[in-house]
Design goal:
Helix content: 40-55%
Strand order of the largest sheet: 1-2
Order of helices and strands: EEHHHHHHH
Structural class: mainly alpha
Radius of gyration: 21 Å
Shape: elongated
Number of strands: 2
Strand content: 5-15%
Length: 186
Amino acid sequence: MILNSYKVHYLTSKSLRSPSVTDPEYPTCSYQFVVMVRMHTPGKGISQSALPYKRSVPTWQKLTSEEVKETIYKLSKKGLTPSQIGVILRDSHGVNQIKHLTGTKILRILRAKGLASTIPEDLYHLIKKAVAIRKHLEKNRQDKDSKYRLILIESRIHKLARYYKKKAVLPPSWKYESATASALVA
């Protein structure tokens, strides 16, 4: 699930059981759940793809784990992102779930080989979008809607950067600056 347009809320549930259950073996307790909701849009954003129930490799799959890893390395050296690599493997090579075949995700495979990008993919695309809007605003200064959308996109960039700093994906000193943003996506 891409985090670029989501906001994290913490909800506290009183009980995981129905109120009619009064068995002392199942006391009511408080848990914290992380629920992802859309940011800057009124939609609920709950639609997603369903993964197959079976987590084993299909019997018709002819590629081995090593062949898939070599293909991932080759596609990454061409400059493709992990999601683009997954789409190519799914559509051209018939690999439905890389994790089921190799045991690890594409990004983790790339990190182990040292081919992963320094900026996470969703943050990269937000920065790329902000750079494109800034370029548009240089020519069209009176475009008020684009100015507003740029503010929203940059707030998502700051929120996502804060999240990635907390998860130690980005270094603590990393900061988004609009003046140097075009160099990040070039």
